[in-house]
Design the sequence.
């Protein structure tokens, strides 16, 4: 796929009505601001390490704010209140994922974090635009695939619990990435369906769903990349160890022959 086809795909979203485009812009701007507060929460937990001791209160707070966002009526008067709750949710989520990212940032594999962010953003944008320009039947097929992949993910998780192996772990991660991408399709399709029926979109609720999709996609990609890097390093160590043994075996006859020749002289 060349760059012209990418720009063509983005331009095909112009068939959406201006009102729908404005509502989509509000949703994605809310999503970007929530990702910004998540990043700020990460650096806040990095600067103040004592915040890592409040893991359970943070989890309870995230759950409570998520429930509050869903139960507070989505009216224009409550928009600012619900948006503040969403930003606080993103802040707490950044503090929660910081301990999972920090060991990688301190190691030689800090580039994996930036790679996972870039891949997650690319996949999220690609599947969102593909849903906007695709037909309804293709999107429904993707939704069916998402439900099948989710059931497969549950079975793989159960199987890896009883029979732990690296192969099952990698397959579980890849299926999880596929499920996260398909859920981006599902939520984008839901937004488009509501907008095309003329209903007013709630930017906070849909931005929160997209935010959870992005975080899930990022964490699974980071885990897959770090697992693959560990596997490559282990193979390199095994290769060097095997090579050194082979060199020692090859050197011993030469050394013994040298000693024999020296004694004869």
Sequence:
């Amino acid at each position: 796929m060349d760059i012209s086809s990418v720009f063509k795909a983005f331009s095909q979203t112009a068939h959406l009505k201006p009102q729908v485009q404005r509502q989509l812009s509000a949703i994605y701007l809310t999503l970007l601001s929530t990702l910004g507060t998540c990043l700020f929460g990460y650096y806040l937990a990095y600067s103040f390490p004592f915040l890592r001791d409040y893991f359970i209160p943070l989890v309870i707070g995230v759950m409570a704010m998520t429930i509050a966002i869903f139960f507070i009526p989505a009216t224009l008067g409550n928009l600012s209140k619900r948006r503040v709750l969403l930003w606080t949710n993103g802040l707490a989520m950044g503090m929660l994922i910081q301990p999972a990212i920090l060991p990688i940032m301190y190691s030689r594999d800090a580039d994996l974090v930036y790679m996972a962010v870039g891949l997650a953003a690319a996949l999220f944008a690609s599947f969102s635009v593909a849903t906007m320009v695709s037909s309804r039947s293709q999107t429904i097929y993707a939704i069916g695939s998402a439900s099948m992949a989710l059931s497969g993910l549950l079975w793989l998780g159960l199987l890896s619990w009883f029979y732990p192996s690296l192969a099952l772990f990698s397959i579980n991660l890849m299926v999880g990435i596929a499920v996260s991408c398909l859920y981006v399709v599902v939520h984008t399709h839901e937004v488009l369906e509501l907008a095309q029926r003329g209903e007013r979109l709630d930017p906070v609720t849909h931005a929160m769903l997209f935010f959870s999709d992005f975080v899930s996609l990022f964490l699974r990609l980071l885990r897959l990349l770090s697992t693959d890097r560990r596997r490559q390093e282990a193979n390199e160590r095994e290769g060097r160890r095997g090579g050194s043994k082979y060199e020692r075996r090859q050197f011993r006859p030469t050394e013994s022959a040298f000693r024999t020749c020296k004694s004869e002289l």
Remarks:
- The radius of gyration is 25 Å.
- The CA atoms of residues 160 and 169 lie 7 Å apart.
